[in-house]
Design a protein that fits this description.
Layout (H helix, E strand, L loop, with lengths): L2 H14 L11 E5 L4 E10 L2 H6 L11 E5 L4 E3 L7 E6 L5 E8 L4 E3 L5 E6 L2 H4 L8 E5 L7
Parallel strand pairs: 2-3
Antiparallel strand pairs: 1-2, 1-9, 3-8, 4-7, 5-6, 5-8
Length: 147
């Protein structure tokens, strides 16, 4: 009889154990496969509670090519931000569900259908012609995109 509670405890522990991430580690580049454009060449990942909570707070801006991928995430705020950003909401298959352009400070934005969001320099989504329904791909940043 003592084995059953141990099995249950082990199964519960395995269920809640962290899963290996399917996303590449380190900086990423983001390609819009539908348009053949580049959204970011140096994308940082925020996949832990601490990194998601901090987001871009404390930054004074984003350089072209930079960005932050927050997952899981279906809503963001720009409270205390010092610069506008573009938001690209993605589902689990990395399909664009919603795009918000040049979101200024002190705003809220959400997309219930999203699993993650890209925070990019203002104007990036428009320059890459990114629209709802586009498919994106995350790849490790190349050595040439890191300089």
């Amino acid at each position: 009889m003592g084995m059953i509670p141990q099995r249950i405890a082990r199964a519960v522990g395995q269920f809640f154990a962290p899963r290996p991430s399917a996303a590449p580690q380190g900086p990423l580049q983001v390609l819009n496969l539908t348009r053949g454009t580049v959204l970011a060449t140096q994308l940082t990942q925020a996949h832990t509670a601490a990194t998601r909570r901090k987001g871009l707070l404390g930054r004074v801006g984003l350089f072209p090519g930079e960005g932050l991928w927050i997952a899981p995430c279906e809503s963001v705020h720009t409270f205390f931000m010092h610069f506008p950003i573009d938001l690209v909401y993605l589902d689990r298959k990395l399909k664009v569900k919603k795009v918000r352009h040049r979101v200024p400070a002190w705003r809220l934005s959400a997309c219930i259908a999203a699993h993650s969001v890209l925070e990019l320099p203002a104007g990036t989504a428009a320059a890459a012609r990114t629209e709802r329904g586009d498919s994106v791909e995350m790849l490790p940043a190349t050595a040439s995109s890191e300089s």
